[in-house]
Fold:
Amino acid sequence: MIFAIEEINRVGALLPNFTLGYKIYDSCSTPHQALKAAMELTGGEESGSEFEGETLSPDACHGAVPVVIGDGGSTQSLVVARFLGVFQVPQVSYFSSCACLSDKKEFPSFLRTMPSDFFQVGALAQLVKHFGWIWVGIVAGDDAYGRGGAKIFADEINKLGACVAFNEIIPKNPSQTEISSIVASIRSSGVHVILVFAVEQDVAAFFDEVVRSGLTGMQWLASEAWSTASVLSNPRKYHHILQGTLGFAIRGINIPGFQDFLLRLNPSSPDASKNPFLVPFWEEVFQCSLDIHAGGWKADGKPPCTGTEELKSIQNTYTNVAQLRISYNVYKAVYAIAHALKAMRSCVKGDGPFPQRSCPDVENVQPWQESSDEGRGGQKQYKWGSTVESVHVKYRKMILSFIKYL
Structure:
């Protein structure tokens, strides 16, 4: 997000003589933190309490923001969308795919650069039809994403003549007994084709138990939330279980200039103090401490950082930007907003989209006035305030393009 905003400001062609600012909050993947962030962003002033993980741009204003990007999870976005909808503040999510969020009566100002699960589940159902499977199990997360996706999938395969053998739910923060019970149910069912529709944290807990219990010989179907997750594809302990897994992934792309931007980040840079995420990230990557107390070692046992660490010297998921997926969705969201602002600034008096064909006051932008038709490169995106949600992120070649764990 910061990269996209700074790129737009630096190039200047899209919004000449106009500077975008930002406020970034960490929702910690929890609904109450997401709602708190939304309230502070739209309230125009801070609540007086420190908000963990707040990042401000040098150009950040102290008034209420006209648009909110986020959240990632569908459960968090549901809470935020209900709140922002009351004030007609546009919300653009980059990873919330729950089909429930397409209800414009309930969520009038919610938009996204992520397809609804309706399309993904339709493709998964076609996989079932393509391979002739008639007896399928479902394991879903206990949230809007998991339960919603599982329901649509069950309905879709029933239409195709297939049956759902079971629908198990992975609880949040599950106990060993709860996870073991799910695996035991799978083993006793005799089913060999199972869809796992859950976020990667829940899926990792589930497959840890699958590994421990020695459950093998399953054909797993993956939802996009974990089909490309490195937490499952990298550790070798999962390979013998997940080999042959089929699933779909959102479009990946290389964003020009983004890798150089990432590799330039350094906690000693002048702007580092504005980024509360940089220090903990740096300490985790290099296993050293920037917060040194008496004795030269931090309480957690990490040695002091030397100051010579460079991100270009490491190879991990952070530095690999060849196939950006979620990040690209964030990038597109920023550009969609920029195009909306450009359209407002280009409005011709007497030919505007508002009552009496009026144009908005560009010095006093109202959230409900923003609309966008295109993103970078002329891609069709969406129109805020319309009754139809459209996104240009597509599952390409939905039947033949799938993820295989090798």
